[in-house]
Each structure stands twice: as C-alpha cells, then as structure tokens.
Amino acid sequence: MKHVRRFVATVAIVGVLAGIWSLRGRAMDQYLGTQTYEDIYYLPPPQWLEVMSLGHRRALADLIWLRALIYFGDEFANKGAVRHVFNYGDSMLALDPDFKRVYRWVGMAGVYTPTGSSTEFMERAIDVLRRGAERFPNDGDLAWDAGATITYDLLPHLPKDDPDREQLKAEGNEYMMAAARLGAGPDWLVMTNATSLRKLGQTDRELRHLEEMYAMIRDPKVKAQIEIRLTQLRDQAYAEAFRSANEEFEKRREEEFPYMPSTLYFFVADPIDATVGLEDPS
Length: 282
Hints:
The chain has 282 residues and is mostly helical. Helix content is 72%, strand content 0%.
C-alpha cells in the first residue's frame, strides 16, 4: 500500500508540475502578445539619481548602462528614433563623469540611428564628444571620434553657406591632428590632416605636422607620401623665403640708393642684411 501511495503521490506531483509549466508558458505567451513597442524614458532627472544612488553612483551608472544598451537595441529592432539616447547619457555621466565609454557611445548612438539623424541630433552628440575629449585630453580615440564626427558626419549635412562651416572644419581638423599625435585613427589620417591644413592656408603647420608624424607611421606607402609632400613643402618654403628676401632687398635699395641698379647695389649693401631670409629653411 505504501508503494502505491508513493506512486500515486509522485504521479500527482508530476501532473501538477506539468500543468503549472503549461500554464506558465501560455501566460508568458499571452503577456508577450499584449506587449507593444513604446519609446518611453522612465528614469528620473540626473540630480535625483545622484541622491537615489545612496553613494553608489558608479554602480547605478553601470546598471543604467545595461539598460541603455538594451534600449538602443530595441530602437534598432523597431526602427525607432532613439530619442532618449541623450537622457541615458546625461544620467550616466552625472553619476560617473569618468565613464569614458559613455562619451563614445553617445557620440555613435546619436549619429547612427535607424531612421537617420538630424543636424541638431548630430550637434548634441558632438557636444558630448567634446566633453569627453576635454576630460580625457590624452585619449586619442575620443579625439578621433570627435574630429571624424564633425568632419565626415556633420559637415556634409550642413548648407554650403552655413556661417559655422569653416569654424567646424578647423575644429574637426584640430581633433584629428590630436588623434594622430596620440596614435589613434588610421595611418592615412596624417595625410588627410595635412591636406586640411593646406586648404586652410596653414602650410607651416602642415610642414611641422608631417615632420612630427613621420616617425610614428608604419605604413611604407603613407611614409612615401609624407616624404614627397615634405620635399614639396621645403622647396616651397625656400621659394617663399627667397621671394620675401628679394622684396626686402628692393625696398632697401629704393630707400638708400634709388638711382643704383640692383646688381650694383648687391655689392654695396651690407652683405649680412642682403642675405637675410635666404638661409636654408631646413
């Protein structure tokens, strides 16, 4: 009899468990079936989060980081507008300003969205990257992100006559030069920086930048391009020095001996003054 009772009890328990499991599955299916996509931000303002963390600010920032990643994935799955990416970023950075990964994540998530980003959205993302680059001046990746986002994402979407265009172009180049000096970004970044400086009329800075970066580059093709450009710039620098010296020479001749031909004045003038500016620039 005892064995029979145990058998019956076992069968009953197994039946109950099977029923619970079946009902649990149905309940879950019904719950998931009633769920709809909603782009809602539930967290309180950042200043409240600082109080609610009870001193565990970094731990709470880590939890929000996990939620932010899930949110970003959901937005892509549902082709959302990622409207709250900056809310998540502000909350995490208020709790932990040294959370470096957040700066780069907001800079990416605010630009590369499922539905495309407006220039206002990109500018907000760039502002976060600026903050990160300012807080971590020796981080080449943050400098590269800031410069590349300005140059390759924001500028192409601005009107040609935008008053801030030239300033942004110069700012993006400064960030990318810093990235190159810190060893971040691709090898071709050096030549891109040099080209940008040339377009801005800053050939002296272009020369210094190429000389500074030459030893850091490992790609032989890029090194060869730098060598060619350095030769051109040095020749150009010498030609410019020669032209300036010649103009100064003519100016002094007209002031001192306007009646004397240049060929004769060359022998009469002070030999040191007559050759100022003609030194080898290298």
